[in-house]
Structures are given as C-alpha cells and as structure tokens.
Amino acid sequence: MDISNVNCGPGHGISVGSLGKNKEEKNVNGLIVRDIVFNGTSDGIGIKTWESSASKILVSNFVYENIQMINVGNPINMDQKYCPHPTCEKKTAHVQIQDLKLKNIYGTSTNKVAVNLQCSKSFPCKKVELIDINLEHKGVEAGPSTAVCENVDGSACGKMVPSALPELIQRPMGTMTLCYNTFIFSYVFV
Fold it and tell me: Where is the active site (predicted)?
C-alpha cells in the first residue's frame, strides 16, 4: 500500500495497529507513507502491537518519507507495549517489527517525546533506519524534544533532532554525511 500526498488534520494520524490481538492475524508487509503533512493531529505515524499478543506475525518493509509535522502530539510512535486497559494480562509479545525506514521527517511536536520507539524485549525491532529526523518541541513544557528508544536494532544518518542517539550524532567531513550503525539499545534520552 502506498499512501502519499495527503494533508491530515485534525485527527489521529496514520497508524498501523493494533496488531497481535487476534490469533488469526497475518503478516503486514510493504507500506509506504510519503509526502504527507500532519497538522494538529494527536499522532503522526505509528505502529501499535499488543504487549500480550495472541498471534505470531511479522511487520516489515515499511517506509515513512518526506513527512511534515505541524504541532503534532506524538509525531513518531512505534509502540510494542500497547495495552489500552490496565488489566492486560502480561504475556510474551510475538510480533516482530523489522525493515523500517524513517526518512526526512521534520516539524514540531506538542509533546516533549517527539520520537517514541518502544519495542519488545523478546522481539526487538530490527533494521530500523532513521535518516534526517528534525522534530522540535513547541509545547507547553519547557525544554527541547526528547526520544524514548527501547530494544531497537538500527542505524541513524544525517540530522537527528531530538538527538536520541548521542553516539550517532552526525560528524561532518567536508560535504560527506557519516552514518553510524548501532546494535540493540534501550535508553531514554533527555
């Protein structure tokens, strides 16, 4: 599926989920979301999977590219700990997210946490590429935008705001942009 050239707002953004709730669910593969403007939405782009998933599925080959966020609550929200009810039974997650590319995503977030990548400990997100992410905090709380990254295996390249991965900050050499690879990380950066 290719979603492109959409102006979205108000609303809930473009999310895939809630995956893993039912046993008969199938793999989700090949989503492209590009050339989108989110204006005043509660969320921007996201994937939600149930923390207590009933099905073993693969979510793969997603591309999010050229996306502008204008006063969006949660611009990037990948949540493998989704549980809308406080009484969710804690089981092992069985949804694997891999091969995600997030490129040229920019604008403003009304929440301090502009990038939320909360992946499962038992099925960490794999091959996540962050390329030129520039999301500034413009909300009521003071301070710059932040990121939450848990159990993610991936890489970052280009401009990174929030600087979610300090060890991956771009170091220019002439006109060359360096890209750095990471391995499993589980941090909250402020």
Answer: 12
